[in-house]
Amino acid sequence: MSGAVSSTLGAPKGRYQSNPATREAPWVRYTLLALGLSFFVLFLILPLVAVFTEALRKGWDTYLAALIEPDAVSAIKLTLLAALISVPLNLVFGVSAAWAIAKHDFRGKQLLITFIDLPFSVSPVVAGLIYVLLFGAQGWFGPWLQANDVKIIFAVPGIVLATVFVTFPFVARELIPLMQAQGRDEEEAATVLGASGWQTFWHVTLPNIKWGLLYGVILCNARAMGEFGAVSVVSGHIRGQTNTLPLHVEILYNEYQFAAAFAVASLLALLALVTLVLKQFIEWRASRARLETQP
User: What are the residue boundaries of the ABC transmembrane type-1 domain, all occurrences included (predicted)?
Assistant: First the structure.
């Protein structure tokens, strides 16, 4: 055995520095790289180029006319309204749920985690149908809502509810593993020193989770503005009233108004690009912050 050890120690220094699992032939690396780039170009770059090319095919005048058309303006406003309501609600819920799960032990913790993951396992269309079953004219609460002149389905409240449902896991799912990895030591130390729960959260917890929180909010906002399935079921497709941007694109395309459809779709494509840029910036800032805190 000593001979084996001495032979290993006496081997050339560079012989054992590389990982055998990564010593592929050059043609293997280049093939994998080419495949990755091909999929990137085929499924990301080309669709984006196609959207903007079709949107501008008939010139800027047609493009701008499609965006300032009354139904398009109404769809933009409704999309922004749904996002402005659902994102702050999910922000509050996500932070509260992550705080409870990561920092406290209680009965039903696993059940709460399961409920948070529910929108990931349920089709958005099914979620929309559930709201119709609950609040529709023939639903469980439909007669009472009609008697009190309250409209939820085929109105803005239904769209907001559907948007909240499909987006509420994003903030919580970003924060739970982050807060679990950070542990409870700093919060417990702050509590021992006399800090209140709010002071502990504001001065200890929030600075540690701010980049993950911002990342979750960005993903939540992107999903809220691009949601189609659940919103399509509860909206009723009333032009100028209950159509969001994705629904407006569908209507324009079905009516063979291709230039207008792609013009409106380009707004969603721009949102996706902005989301990617912000995602990369936040990941860079978060990694830099981790490096700065390391001893």
Answer: 76-279
